[in-house]
User: Fold this.
Amino acid sequence: TDFGYGFHVFILLYQPFIEKTLHEGVERFPCVEVRMGNEVESFSDSGEGVTVVVRDHSTDKVYEVKAKYLLGCDGGRSTIRHQIGAELIGKTFQQWLVVDVRVDDPSKYPSNLQFICDPKRPVVTYPMAFNHHRWQFMLKDGETTEQMEQLETVRTLLAPWADLEDVELIRKSVYIYHARIADKWTAGRVFLAGDAAHLTPPFGGTGMNSGIRDVSNLSWKMALVLRGHADPAILHSYQIERKPHVQKMTRMSVNFGRILQTESRTVAWIRNLLFRLLNFIPIIGRKVRSGEFKPEASFLGGLVASDHQQQSRAARGKLFIQPKVRTTDAESILLDEVLGHGFAVLGLEVDPRCVITTESQAFWENLSTRFVRIIGATEQPGPEDGLAVVADLENKLAAWFNRFQVNLVVIRPDRYVFAVFTTNTASSAAQELRQALFPDGQVS
Ligand SMILES: Cc1cc2nc3c(=O)[nH]c(=O)nc-3n(C[C@H](O)[C@H](O)[C@H](O)COP(=O)(O)OP(=O)(O)OC[C@H]3O[C@@H](n4cnc5c(N)ncnc54)[C@H](O)[C@@H]3O)c2cc1C
Assistant:
């Protein structure tokens, strides 16, 4: 299932390829410079800006970088986290040997994600993109990293699935799995994101996902602040919105780990019996296979419509759906392709520009707002000035609006719902958003 978001809930990727793609992707932005082999040693925050001390390891020279804000995405051992005095709260779990290989013929290996709950040696295995395959083997008490990373050990462990001679070995490393979340993610002009802010066992496949969610939450807010289109106070919403979801995801991964890692034969027997019984309850089997157990990415507090905007209470803070739509140019594309990178206002069978008043026109323009009118599945979108028109191919958008009994929605750049309105309340949309972006009322 895709839960309405346009992509399957489980996607098995290969992280080094994602990182390579990201590296290549930033090359198109002249304002971005990637300095490999440079290490941040320390920073100071003057209250007006941040000065970062960096060592270039190719020359051993130390230099300074000045910036308005510092985003510490420096992984689990984060220097930045240490320097802001944040503490990682939580637990450290078992060690696991991770073996990655490239195979010639993926059809010879397990084609799906498997948790092998064998009390003698729990194993997780799954295929990844472009003929890559991963096995994770739990270390038992007394086993050492050195011993587990030996080629002969890897050969023996892989034997039930693969002959080491038939595959290309890419990685054989022992990792310690943690479930730890920093007690604070920000200090002054400094923010933590990704593993620097939270570490989770990989059983739920949520570590990098959470990091990407972090930066997709923070980056547009920072851009608005730097352009003077929002007050720096909105940056406080970052931790408020992200931390509860990270906590839920971490809990889920830890629970998976508990089920998987049992080494007691008796407990494993009871667990297996319980799972066999649960399998007879169709709703449970469906929930497990479809991934419905994954905590919904939503938040209650943060940068969303205020409590007094009653219409929005049920919808605000939820990730907006992403169904297929037809446009003037494309027969069937995902909605996000139409929404751009800024705020978007969507109107079901109404012109969403009804949120614009004479007084709020510049405000919406400053936010590079995209206006989108939704029409019925069988209607043909025609070009309209300053407006995108999309046909609701699967009637999912109409169902969403009907569920909340509204016909207008304001969506944030990260595609979370800011607020919903009817045509009667549309003129208050700008006021509501302005209030959220400038909580102290000091519009610059
Ligand atoms: C075995 C395993 C399986 C996993 N499976 C999944 C999965 O299925 N799904 C998922 O979503 N996640 C998974 N993860 C988690 C995922 O790999 C991490 O959550 C992700 O890599 C974190 O990204 P990050 O950029 O925050 O940190 P990192 O990937 O650790 O990157 C931090 C970077 O900062 C650099 N750095 C550190 N200190 C400094 C400094 N002082 N100055 C300059 N640079 C510095 C480091 O060199 C590194 O390049 C898995 C992890 C493991 C170990």
Observations:
- The mean pLDDT is 93.
- DSSP finds twelve helices and 19 strands in the chain.
